[in-house]
Amino acid sequence: MRTEADVSAHIGVPAAIMYAQAFSTISSVIPCFSKRGDIIVADRAVNYPIRKGIQISRSTVFWYEHNDIADLERVLQKVVRMQKGKKLTRRFIVTEAISEHVGDKLDLPAVVALKHKYKFRIILDESLSYGVIGSRGAGLTDASRTDPNEIDMIIGSLSGPLIGGGGFCAGSADVVEHQRITSSSYTFSAALPALLAVTASQTIAIMQCEEGERLRDTLLDNTRALREQLDPRSNFVRCSSALENPIQLVVLRDDVVKQRGLTRDEEEQIVADVVDDCLGRGVFVARLRSLPPELGASPREEQDRWQPKPAIKVCVTTGLTRKEIERAGVEIRHAVTKIMQKRK
Q1: Distance CA 159, CA 19 (A)
Q2: How far apart, in whole angstroms, are the C-alpha atoms of residue 207 and residue 41?
Q3: Which of 172, 207, 242 is the last residue of a domain?
Q4: CA 182 from centre of chain
Q5: Residue after which a domain boundary falls, among 207, 228, 252
Q6: Residue 338 and residue 331: Cα distance in Å, rounded?
Q7: In the structure, what pLDDT confidence band is assigned to residue 301 with cuts at 50, 70 and 90?
Q8: Rounded Cα–Cα distance for residues 177 and 343 (Å)
Q9: Residue 191: per-residue pLDDT
Q10: Given a cut of 80, is residue 89 above it in pLDDT?
Q11: Which of 324, 266, 325 is nearest to 274 (CA)?
């Protein structure tokens, strides 16, 4: 209960509810509120837990192009026209504050404006932004100076920057209490271990003091140091992530892909080779995983489904000095150059 109060007070909303697993938080929150016959308008690039939640809800789904506010408005207008004269249904915009598959940041004020204009509710996944961005580390609502009460459901993780475990959903008291009796992942799950809950609460306390501000400044400085060694110094790759995102996604430049006529499989192989070469250089990076096949989807549907661009995933931390981060960036750049020159 204390951790729930700490999270809600930190974000600035009336209440919050804790879940034992971060993955199952949003995949349970969505079907808890959106049912068959309701409407979900979702970003085409949303992460896998969101996709599972949408699938479980059995709602009618409309997709809009990733972080394209104009396309989002087009889809909202289409939904409103379709619903005119019909029975009123619940309607939701589902998106991420920081995209897991692209790394960029949402224009939250613009989405909130569309919410009011077309009478939708917002379900916002702050799993990669809570504890990282904002003057208090409270996520995108804090960073964009948006009233958090304008967001109907804010979902986040306690297992990332908060070094705890589980997830949370923050919002109004009614939204939280509804989940206590109808959310499957809350009702049919064990409670979050006390050790992890206390750890999360202590981390939230640190985030709101001078030490937390110093850590966020160091993290941003380290992220900037990494990017300076990769983008624009490399002739082959660029960083698709926002500067504030400590998980930097490094992708092949569009002009390089076009010039060499690379297929998706070839891009995947290049990324895999770079990751292996980096490991030999003493730098541990990972690959961005493709989305797994949808259950029951036809081959044609799988072919047309959105997939993230093959990318190297580099996680920046405050545990390394700026000099160590710069060295890692140089080694990654050299690994990319070596692999690309081999393919000439």
Answers
A1: 11
A2: 33
A3: 207
A4: 25
A5: 207
A6: 10
A7: low
A8: 57
A9: 82
A10: yes
A11: 266
Q: Could you tell me if 68 and 197 lie in one domain?
A: yes
Name the pLDDT band for 148 (thresholds 50, 70, 90): very high
The verdict on 229 and 260 lying in the same domain is: yes
Alpha helices in the chain (DSSP H): 2-11, 23-33, 48-57, 69-83, 108-118, 140-143, 173-182, 184-187, 194-207, 210-230, 254-260, 264-280, 299-304, 322-342
Regarding pTM above 0.90, the answer is yes
What pLDDT was estimated at residue 240? 95
Structure tokens at 215: 């850590």
SS3 of the chain: helix, strand, coil, percent, to 5: 50, 15, 35
- Say which CATH number the domain at 32 has: 3.40.640.10
Instruction: Looking at the structure, tell me whether residues 161 and 34 fall in a common domain.
Output: yes
Q: Is the dihedral of CA 48, 49, 55, 61 positive or negative?
A: negative
How many residues in total does the chain contain?
Answer: 344
What pLDDT sits at residue 231?
85
Structure tokens at 23: 């993955």
Confirm if 182 and 29 have CB atoms less than 8 A apart.
no
| Residues 263, 103: Cα–Cα separation, whole Å | 22
Q: pLDDT tens digit string along 183-239?
A: 988 888 878 888 898 999 999 999 999 999 999 999 999 999 999 999 889 999 999
Q: Contact, 137 vs 163, CB < 8 A? A: no
How far apart are alpha carbons 323 and 330 in whole angstroms?
Answer: 11
Q: For residue 76, count CB atoms less than 10 angstroms from its CB and return exposed for 0-12, middle for 13-18, buried for 19 or more.
A: buried
In percent, the amount of the chain with pLDDT more than 70 equals: 98
Contact (CB, 8 A) for 96 and 128? yes
**Conformational region of residue 285, where left means phi above 0, alpha means psi within -120 to 50, and beta covers everything else:** beta
**Is-contact 185 28, C-beta < 8 A?**
yes
CA distances (Å), 24 to each of 36, 48, 287, in order?
Answer: 20, 11, 23
Position 66: which residue type? H
